[in-house]
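hey m, so remember when u said the tokens were messed up on ur end? i reran from scratch. heres the input so u can diff it against urs
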Amino acid sequence: MSVAITTSDLPLTLDERACERRVGLILLATDQSTEADFTRMVASDAIHVFGTRIEFANPTTTENLRAMKPRLAAAAGLLLPGEAFDVICFSCTSGTVLIGDDEIAAAIHASKPEAAVVTPPAAAAMALRALNAQKISVLTPYVVPVGELMADYFVDAGFTLENFTCLEMEDDGDMARMSRASLVEAAVAATAPSAEALFISCTALRSAAAVLEIEARIGRPVVTSNLATVWATLGHCGALAARPDAGRLMARSLPAAA
């Protein structure tokens, strides 16, 4: 040994937390997009974002999506075991529709009972209401059987679907690789003249970064899965602020009952 190692007897103090707010993400094993969006729009010196993964295998069939349900509690438990969280988001829109918002909240609360639970479809519905949009168009990358269940979710939530478009993609890796230009053109084509807003479903799509461009093209508000969960998460953290680069939603407040 070339140097003598010494120890220090200086008194040390510990902060209660290393940050003011903790946000947890439960991500599909195959997710390539959510972390980038949350890093860009949520993470800060005050809000730290921690991610874990849940086993999932393509294709995005109803069977594979439902198979995540028994894995949720364990995934939540891997987020800083023994530490409290302010918000935990399960980042799968279609998976939530197949499993159910209440079932997902119960599974997460089994490990993290103190956390507010955010899911993409519930956040999207709340966002659309905050934008005073009742008649909506929906664009999804899903196959039709998954799309049908998604359509039922929003009809049951009280929305009128002016139209609903499925791109018939089965692999969420392909969804993540869809070019921005293709996504923008698909969004424009999917927006009915009578729609008051467009919802772009799926956390795999890199659509949150394209919201401003799409809104400029269609002249109406745009909500995406990741933008909605970012908005809801920031609202629960008391950190919502208008962001001109992120579209109209970020200027709206989270409802008090959320």
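this time it looks ok to me. The beta strands are 21-28, 47-54, 87-90, 116-118, 135-140, 160-166, 197-200, 222-224. if urs says something different then somethings off w ur setup not the seq
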